[in-house]
Amino acid sequence: SEQVQAARAALEIKIRGKGCPPPVETWEQCGLRDRVLAVITRLGFGAPFAIQRQALPALMSGRDVIGVARTGSGKTLAFLLPLFRHILDQPPLGEGEGPIGLIMAPARELAVQIYTEAKKFTKALGLRVTAVYGGAMVADQIGDLKRGAEIVVCTPGRMIDILTMQAGKLVSLARVSFVVMDEADRMFDMGFEPQIRMILQNVRPDRQTALFSATFPPKVEALARKVLRAPLEIIVGGRSV
Ligand code: ADP
Ligand code: MG
Predict the structure, then answer these.
(1) Ligand 1 centroid – CA 33 distance (Å)
(2) Distance 121 CA to ligand 1 centre (A)
(3) What spacing in Å lies between the alpha carbon of 113 and ligand 1's midpoint?
(4) Mean pLDDT for the chain?
(5) Which alpha helices (H) appear in 61-137, and where do they start and end?
(6) CB 216 within 8 A of CB 66
(7) ipTM above 0.90, yes or no
(8) CB under 6 Å to ligand 1: residues?
(9) Does 213 have pLDDT greater than 80?
(10) Which residue's CA is minimally distant from atom 25 of ligand 1?
């Protein structure tokens, strides 16, 4: 409608793809659980940022999403909150089962940032999150994975290392049904495309997939077209910074 178009224009949101739900104005409109809303209130967040207003309802509707918005624009919560909802809608993890949500990031410090942001919510939700990245003891990370975690944040290189140990019997991604590729432009620049594709071969084919990036060069778009299914493309403030 004209109203929705005006709201998007005011937020500098451009959409490609059919059937995108309208942007929300408040966290309460997102269909989040009371426990999630309580954490948002406790952390003192203001109204949702532009990428959150549009990517949240798009992901909550079950669609694959490409979200492009500059650094610092709040992309982390735009994918974490729908990821929590997705997981809480699934049967609980059984003994020895691998994660349901998998987030890939290009580097250790980014994986730790996402992990830290997720941790602010997981306790209240009864969920477990763990992180696997290079430059830290792989044995500790394997121990965490084996104890069970609904959400794993990883760098692609370390995830492949762990997946290929002990003939792949160490951890299973067979239950992963929600995948996030964060900072996709940086992952691509660092040459992680083969590892990303290998990881995606180990998760559920009917997964929901989100790709977030600060910029959206043609090479990243080509990767997105290959690994996402009928994605909604949500661009805030132009294609690149
Ligand atoms: P990006 O991934 O797009 O670079 P982040 O998700 O890291 O951005 O968010 C940047 C900062 O903004 C973080 O400190 C985050 O906690 C904060 N933030 C996110 N959403 C909101 C919001 N709606 N209101 C206030 N602060 C927010
Ligand atoms: Mg980020």
Answers:
(1) 20
(2) 14
(3) 11
(4) 95
(5) 75-88, 108-125
(6) yes
(7) yes
(8) 45-46, 48-49, 52, 69, 71-77
(9) yes
(10) 45
Confidence of residue 241 (pLDDT cuts 50, 70, 90): very low
Question: For residue 160, what pLDDT is reported?
Answer: 96
Contact between 95 and 18 under an 8 Å Cβ cutoff? The reply is: no
Q: How many Cβ atoms sit within 10 Å of the Cβ of residue 55?
A: 33
**Beta strand 232-236 pairing with 13-16:** antiparallel
Q: What are phi and psi of 174, to 5 degrees?
A: -65, -20
**Phi, then psi, of 213 in degrees rounded to 5:** -160, 150
pLDDT digits (tens, 9 = 90+) for 15-66: 999 999 999 999 999 999 999 999 999 999 999 999 999 999 999 999 999 9
* Residues flanking ion ligand 2, Cβ below 5 Å: 75
pLDDT for 239: 67
Note the residue count of the chain. 241
Of 120 and 238, which is predicted with more confidence?
120
| Closest-approaching ligand to the CA atom of 71 | 1
Q: Which amino acid is at 181?
A: M
Ligand 2 center–CA 179 separation, angstroms: 15
Task: Give the mean pLDDT of 115-126.
Answer: 97
Distance CA 214, CA 15 (A): 16
Atom of ligand 1 nearest to the CA of 48: 23
Which of these, 108, 172, 118, 110, lies nearest to 142 by C-alpha position? 172
